[in-house]
Amino acid sequence: MENPKIDIRALSVEKLRDHFSQMGEPAFRAKQVYEWLWEKSCIDFDEMSNLSKPLREKLKESFVINAVNIHQSQFSSDKTIKNTFKLYDSNIIEGVLIPATDRMTACVSSQVGCSLTCKFCATGYMDRKRNLNPDEIYDQVVLIDQQAKQNYQAPLTNIVYMGMGEPLLNYANVLKSIDRITAKDGLNMSPKRITVSTAGIAKMIRKLGDDEVRFNLALSLHAANDEKRNTIMPINEQNSLEALADALKYFFAKTKSPVTYEYILFNDFNDTLQDAAELVKFCRHIPCKVNIIEYNPITFADFKNTETDRTDDFAAYLRKHNINTNIRRSRGKDIDAACGQLAVKS
Question: Is the pTM of the predicted complex or chain greater than 0.90?
């Protein structure tokens, strides 16, 4: 049985050097290949033009580049583009380009499916098949950036890890992907333009603090009351609001980075002024802002979106208590690309 080929993008530049010396090639070749892979986003050994043809053939014999491909793209009436991406093992994930006048945002996935079962999120009704590798997250960014340039003549400005999956349950690979996206020998994007969103895993939020990460953190909160949060987000049963508050204080002490709380308003569930008062209290723990998000209906759940005047009253209450508050209108709803709607249709 022949040896399986090595996934070349899983290797550090040091490991790559070791392979090159075993092949009798000079060490500087490793740096050249690494540059092709991560700075130039090359997915074909034949395009590595400063390598000799015999070396390219050697690389093809020993290594593989598990490139992600766009399987299908859907265009929303509001110019949002939803992509289904096909992975090397035929699994499918989704990622979204959200264009705005002042920014181009890529929403990327971190897992195939999701192991959390948030009641309002379509991905939560899928099984988690596996974690994505760092290069598979990186590829989504590269492909969505190309899409932004082709369709809107503008490069990506922001990345949000808010697609399929819970990023903090794929911690090491998510951080490695961010390293390749932000590194000078990678895509060289600022970490301040990257936001990682979590459903709230207290010990991993603490780990982000220990690692002194430089990207932004967002917490999908949706209720500042344990009883209500348990109902819609079962993860809260092991990660209570008190545990999350302690972890967030630790994170802020280590990083000095304010946190964004995402709060979807559900009609007659978490949209009263009492709910707003509970949210204000939770916001007092650390510097933060609140993004109020419009609920996007999914077939599996019977939640309804709050009426506009209640949304405005809720936001006004937060602002009156000096909470920096934005109301985020949905994008891509007509193609199931909006927040909470990502789920691969079989």
Answer: yes
